[in-house]
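Course assignment 3, question 2. Fill in each field.
Student: A.L.
Task: Predict the tertiary structure for the chain below.
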Amino acid sequence: MNELRLAAVAVVLGLAACTDAGGSPSQTPAAKQGGVTPAELAARSAPKTGDTAPYYTELPLNEFMPHVMQYAGDGVWKRQGYVIDEKGEHSLFPKNDQEWEDAESASLALAEMTNVLLIPGRRVPEPDWDKAVLEVRKVALQAAQAAEKKDPDAFFEAGGALDEACDVCHERYDPTFKKK
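Answer field:
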């Protein structure tokens, strides 16, 4: 019970810090992101009956996918393949230990992002959804292993499998998707 009181006091103090001298919520960009005040965000993020954690799932899936999943996937794909320009062919593959570490981190970040697609309020309650998400996770982990081993061929192969896994999901769940 004391923990609950302490949490309530912390919320009240936190909200008080977000008000101006007149007592109204501050409208600074940090305090009001995307048209949502900190108090509104806290209320939305509060655990619902039966939940074990305050998941934030307000970002619509059509925003989550390009801003989070695609961003994470690009962290893998931008480190693969070749570019040909007027000066010749240039490898995009990591060239040193730090770049391979970055490639592994990008792959692991993507694998972890798949968890977000399976949390209550975000998950599409269909077996095909789970299967598609788990396939993305599997190939992201394969990319991480290849990066850890500094194996450009396996890393490139995992990138192709990742592209295919993403396309399968998009074909099923994104009505605007057009395969290249």
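Instructor remarks: Confidence is low (pLDDT under 50) at residues 1-33. The first helix runs from residue 2 to 17.
Grade: pending
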